[in-house]
Amino acid sequence: MESLINNPPGTESMSQLITIERHILEQQKYFPEAHGELTELLNDVAFAAKLVRREVVRAGLVDILGFAGSTNVQGEEVKKLDLFANEKIINAIGQHGRFAVMGSEENEGIIIPPKNDSGSYVLLFDPLDGSSNIDVNVSVGTIFSIYRIKGDDPSKASISDCLQHGYEQVAAGYVIYGSSVVMVYTTGHGVHGFTYDPTIGEFLLSHENIVTPKSGKYYSINEGSYEQFNEGTKKYLDYIKKEDPATGRPYSTRYIGSLVADFHRNLLVGGVFIYPPTSKHANGKLRLMYEANPLAFICEQAGGRATNGRERILDIQPTELHQRTPLYIGSTDDVIVAEEFEQGIR
Ligand code: P6P
Questions:
Q1: pTM of the model
Q2: Topology of domain 14-207, per CATH?
Q3: HSE of 90, CA atoms in CB hemisphere, 13 A
């Protein structure tokens, strides 16, 4: 597909304008049994992303910044945009009844939409990850993960439908609200990115079949937590900074402090993101169900690797909706090196 960049808006041929709705429809051929439901709910998510984008990109212009005064289940101050994004996604998606049950980073328990009688799916999401960066105009993101309910009666949907292995996901994606707004998703048939064109209000295919490099030149970790790291992580950091042209070292450090932004960069150009176990967070800080699992599904579909340093993220048996996990994710060769230090092999 010719790049849209070579054709200024208005000059591209219609064949280049593949909207996310059209692309999702084409993915339906892989799910004949879904009777179009998956298509509709992915479009619901894309629509909700447009509503969130509208506010995020003008956050500085309206009185939507600053703390909402409340704190979320994680005990963190909740900014108005977190709350807004959470409400928008729940309302915009819950109204169609396609989801039997939802789980959000901002809600302690599960959410049963008012209308869920026809819902065969589960939606788990982080409405606005990295929200502490909103006030300083650093990219933030929405992350989502979709499963089928385990039974066939939506009215009986419960927490157990939310606590499925990551390998059971039927779709996953994220939206990064940055210099441009990009939505990336997979249904298990490759990873595809869409850039929002505000002149027509559509997400247009801009990154077809994303394949992440086998290795990169970036490592992403919060080195300010060095003293909290275990010996394996400290040895890894010493290793990755040593000069060795044969292995492309030293790698450059890139850490934005916004998971979706760090992940997206490494997905496109190669690299590894690590949130390891620390003395403060024995299981790391990031959440399994609506951060690690969806990004792991996407990363593996793009040819990358995602583990907790020892075990494949998608194989972890969930026990709680908000459980944390260490996360080693990105280019396969780079993740393996980091794991070998974590496991004491190096
Ligand atoms: P730290 C943002 O708060 C977040 O949840 C992720 O987006 C980000 O990767 C991580 O936390 C940053 O955490 O401890 O390095 O500030």
A1: 0.92
A2: Fructose-1,6-Bisphosphatase; Chain A, domain 1 (3.30.540)
A3: 21
